[in-house]
Design goal:
elongated; mainly alpha; 3 helices; 72 residues
Length: 72
């Protein structure tokens, strides 16, 4: 089995296809950015960190739910 075949089930459980829903947190970030006047060069890294952190936390919840459903 190749490397892609070995990691595919992990990506399936993490539900990467659901990450698009996390863009709905960005309007709040954009409003905060507009009101504070922080330069884009400083705000963009924070926005990316916030977005991917939210994605990883959501994926962790999916994994925990699958594990609890499987083992209970």
């Amino acid at each position: 089995m190749n490397a892609a075949g070995r990691v595919a089930p992990y990506f399936e459980v993490a539900r990467l296809d659901h990450w698009f829903k996390n863009v709905f947190m960005l309007p709040g970030f954009l409003l905060a950015w507009l009101f504070t006047g922080i330069p884009v060069s400083q705000a963009l890294p924070s926005a990316l960190i916030a977005f991917f952190s939210t994605c990883f936390i959501a994926s962790a919840n999916y994994v925990i739910n699958e594990w609890l459903r499987c083992c209970s």
